[in-house]
Amino acid sequence: MVAPDRISLNTATVRQQWNLRECIEGCSRHGIGAIAPWRDKLAECGVDEGARMIHDHGLRVSGLCRGGMFPAADAAGRQAALDDNRRAVDEAVTIGAVCLVLVVGGLPAGSKDLPDARQQVQDGIAATLEYARTVDMPLAIEPLHPMYAGDRACVNTMRQALDMCDALGEGVGVALDVYHVWWDPELDHQIARAGARNLLAFHVCDWLVPTKDLLLDRGMMGDGVIDIPHIRRQVTANGFTGDVEVEIFSQDNWWRQDPDHVLATLVERCATVV
Amino acid sequence: MVAPDRISLNTATVRQQWNLRECIEGCSRHGIGAIAPWRDKLAECGVDEGARMIHDHGLRVSGLCRGGMFPAADAAGRQAALDDNRRAVDEAVTIGAVCLVLVVGGLPAGSKDLPDARQQVQDGIAATLEYARTVDMPLAIEPLHPMYAGDRACVNTMRQALDMCDALGEGVGVALDVYHVWWDPELDHQIARAGARNLLAFHVCDWLVPTKDLLLDRGMMGDGVIDIPHIRRQVTANGFTGDVEVEIFSQDNWWRQDPDHVLATLVERCATVV
Q1: Partner residue opposite B226 with nearest CB, options A112, A154, A214
Q2: Residue B65's closest CA among B164, B190, B152, B131?
Q3: With b meaning 16 or more CB within 10 Å and e meaning fewer, what string describes A61-84?
Q4: Nearest residue of chain A to residue B116 (CA atoms)
Q5: What is the pLDDT of residue B167?
Q6: What is the CATH number of the domain that holds B217?
Q7: 8 A C-beta contact, residue B94 and residue B51
Q8: Cβ distance of B151 and A226 shorter than 8 Å
Q9: Which band of pLDDT confidence, cut at 50, 70 and 90, is reported for residue A192?
Q10: Residue-wise pLDDT tens digits, A72-114
């Protein structure tokens, strides 16, 4: 049971229907206490205007989506990624985000060298972290489902993300999305290992059976097979006190529905099946 | 570099084009030394006739696909699975297979309880193993990609499969398919842990970027992002001496092509990129 005030709306959930202003006003209408904007929504209205609107509506910001995408085929590409991540850190600070979520990136074009990509990720986070620490913005590594190892994120388990946190030191933790980690036999153990110090964000949606698209067929909580309450209890028992962020990519279902119906549904589901 | 004689054709690779006799004759034409039939192909012609054809063409049998699918919603369902697995063991013996490959099954209908499904899997393998040992048929647990945890296999990593092998004792090992495990940061370590004793089968195909379907969009070796030679070297260095089995589910590409072209292509790719 998660009360509306402890829900965060990730703007991806209604990204086809609403701009940032509409998302913010929607949260207010439905009693949702927090928001997690994607940078494209923020860019549309301007970061300062976005920050002002969020502040004026009294919303918390559970995270900014997203930094990352570190691996590149050459030094220029890697530098461009670092520059972009520095801007993302600044934007996260401007909107008062709890953390900057990192989708770390997959294999550079033409590469099959996963260990190298993973080293590039660690190096990229280390460089970004130097700056992020100076402005007190925590970085949250989001381990993505192994089906994204090639093209989106080569950090694919909680164990791997936490190993990286251990190597990197203060100022970096993890964003745990049930969609990416629910299958992991070690999940409970790694959540306990993370603890309050490293659990920076908690995202929910559901895994549909069958899943028709690798990226854009996530389910509403309760419509799939993830034991979400179990994972939420583990996260809570290990010290996470933040907002429960709802992030649903759903090209053929929720992105086509009336966004007020989407918000009403996720509020109801958070009360009953999360 | 894998010579044709050390290749095994998994019949799924041309399952839309050929029956078992055609697969066997195709192997002979292309100098392929082994075959791995699915049970449906074997059932079409009869197990004894299938065994005779395979023997007459001098093919080795790298495995029978497949047993498993243990979890069920009730005791009757579990017993039906055990009965079917006993028949699968007998069929594997009849065709002289190196092992019976187990796709262990996912969540029973209506369940979200992964730990329970995993326990059902372990119990089901233990029961099947009692019989398999009496007829000297090794069982090969195939960890499937985490994207199949819900509906096909709740054993999703080499670590998990090997932990299960440790718990079950003699007569059970793993079938390693690069498609399912290539992303795993622990892969090299777990291959070394498995060693010759537990590495019973080695399957290859490739992970396409993008992947358009969770089940039926596997790639031909060399067309995707998996560093197959690296994994093959690890498997070989740790004592695997069996055939390299090619198993490609490809609804929109290879299943629509001339099957002799498919075999010629996989023979060429095994020589150059495996």
Answers
A1: A112
A2: B152
A3: bbbbbbbbbbbbeeeebbeebbeb
A4: A185
A5: 98
A6: 3.20.20.150
A7: yes
A8: no
A9: very high
A10: 999 999 999 999 999 999 999 999 999 999 999 999 999 999 9
Mean pLDDT confidence for A180-185: 98
Confidence (pLDDT) at A209: 97
Segment B60-86 shows an average pLDDT of 98
Rounded to the nearest angstrom, the minimum Cα separation between A118 and chain B is 9
CA–CA min distance B105, chain A (Å): 13
Interchain contact, A210 vs B151, CB within 8 Å: yes
pLDDT for B59: 98
pLDDT in tens, B191-223: 999 999 999 999 999 999 999 999 999 999 999
- Number of structural domains found in chain B: 1
Q: Over chain B, what is the mean pLDDT?
A: 98
Please name the residue ranges forming H helices in A57-139: 75-94, 114-134
Q: Do residues A191 and A201 touch, judged by C-beta distance below 8 A?
A: no
Q: Which strands sit side by side in the sheet containing A60-61, from one edge to the other?
A: A60-61, A34-36, A7-10, A244-246, A199-204, A172-177, A139-141, A100-103, A64-68
A210 in Cβ contact with B214 (< 8 Å): yes
State the residue for tokens 């929607």.
A26
> Quick one: CA torsion of B112, B114, B116, B122, rounded to 10 degrees?
150
The rounded distance, in Å, linking the Cα atoms of B141 and B163 is 11
The boundaries of the domain holding residue A74 are 4-272
Q: Which of B157, B159, B207 sits opposite A150 (nearest CB)?
A: B207
Q: Please state the rounded mean pLDDT for residues A117-137.
A: 98
For all residues of chain A together, what is the average pLDDT?
98
CA distance A107 to A149: 8
Contacts of B118 in chain A (CB under 8 A): 185
Minimal CA separation from A146 to chain B, in Å = 6
What is the rounded distance in angstroms from the CA atom of residue A29 to the CA atom of residue A31? 6
What is the arrangement of strands in the sheet containing B139-141, beginning at the earlier edge strand?
A: B60-61, B34-36, B7-10, B244-246, B199-204, B172-177, B139-141, B100-103, B64-68
User: For A224-250, how does the pLDDT look when each residue is reduced to its tens digit (9 = 90+)?
Assistant: 999 999 999 999 999 999 999 999 999
Cα A181 off chain centre by? 13
d(CA B71, CA B145): 18
**Which residue of chain B has the CA closest to A154?**
B183
